[in-house]
Amino acid sequence: MLDQETMALLARGLSAITWQSCVMLCVAFALFYLAIVKDYEPLLLLPIGAGCMLANLPLSPVMDEHGMLKILYDMGVENELFPLFIFVGIGALTDFGPLLENPKFVLLGAAGQFGIFLVLLAALLLGFTQREAVSIGIIGAIDGPTSIYVSGLLAPHMLGPITVAAYSYMSLVPIIMPPCIYLMTSKSERAIHMEYSSRKISRFTRIAFPIIVTVVVGSCVPFATPLIGTLMLGNLMRESGAVERLCNASSNEIANTVTLFLGLAIGSTMVGEKFIKVQTLFILILGLFAFALDCVTGVFFAKILNIITGGKVNPIIGSAGISAFPMAARVCQRVAQEEDFENFLLMHAMGANAAGQVASVVAGGVVLALMGTA
Amino acid sequence: MHTEYFAWGLKMTVIGMGLVFAMLGVLWALLTIILMLDKPEEEEEESSAASASEEAEADEPASQPASTGLPADLVAAITAAVVKHKAALLGGSAPIMRTTWSGSQQSNWVIAGRARQTNTWTPRGK
Prior knowledge:
Chain A is mostly helical. Chain A contains 21 helices and no strands. The longest helix of chain A is centred in the last third of the chain and has 31 residues, at 278-308. Chain B has two domains: 1-60; 62-92, no CATH class. By secondary structure, chain B is mainly alpha-helical. Chain B starts with a helix and ends in an 8-residue tail after the last helix. Chain B is elongated, with a radius of gyration of 31 Å. Classes of the chains: A mainly alpha, B mainly alpha. At the A-B interface, helix 8, helix 9, helix 10, helix 15 and helix 21 of A face helix 1 of B.
């Protein structure tokens, strides 16, 4: 009944299994483990793992021209649509109040972007091309959507490892940040108390902030307009209070749906033949290096501010000038309290953290402008 | 080739970080100006609110009964008692248990509290 030809057809899938696809299935299982058991960014790592698994199953039809994952990739990753939708949701969820209370901390956000450029240099030394080096460096923005947006434009073939690195390290903030802070600060510096005087921010200022940021950044760095425009659109919806339904939809339904689609599409780029390279290992290591450098340079800059202000700035908050909001600020508070239980840095760190959110988007626009890519 | 690339990278670093700092410096300046302009309005509001409350205090006698017809201190005491009673009820209620992994979406069943209702809170065998 079953001739040899039929048997061959039935066994076609099994015969198409390669060692690369087996390795990638293990990678997918590792992502599932991180998401489900370790609770590391499960909303992103679980769909990425699923996309990776589906893409690496033998003769997977989801990767065909009309396959689901290919359609998702073309629909929102290739044209950079999905990261921008995510930004609308992030804007709708972010409270820039702590930054408005202490606008000088906006500079800490800038200092937290040094890792991008220092890792760019390291990547060039390791033999990556200029576009690839910039894409790896942008992991240092510690901002998933920015990393996807920039690397999607400059080096789409490296989108998978860059995204996995960016989101994995974002979830490892509580593990990576404290050693960097301890390395860069003395006991007495960590114990510095910062005065906090709650400042009432009017509704007008809260509404004006996203509009001004969009106009200023968009005018000066047009390449950053999509990123900053969508981030600030979400924040404008939140602060205006006029479109509560849109705000809720952006931060819940739209963000959740797009996160699922984005994760699956990114996972589909992790195909064994393209992913298993020494380059991928370099990307993961350099990404970690970028994150650590962001923290180190942020703390260093805060130390300079501390000297300028005559000992009024606790250097710990410098490490919060990254985009991982609000986890980075919480870690700063935890480290400060380990030194002195009555030291409350949270609101200052939140200000620096909100600045890091804006700064990472600005940095993404700046590197795109310098690379001459729209 | 590597030296050439490295020189390009150094140029990117200097110009890139310079631009990021410049952009955020401009933003800092603008925010400071807006907050300065915003301040008088706040102070005006505060001063007008303070004067209004002062006037109101002057108009009303100290032991003015509340709209319920009860004295204000009695209403405050009843409110405090109600809050304490609610807290006591909450303390004696069933503990909230985690039924899903954090970060995951809860089902409508869980949101409605049905999963909690199916659990028993009394120790087994008693």
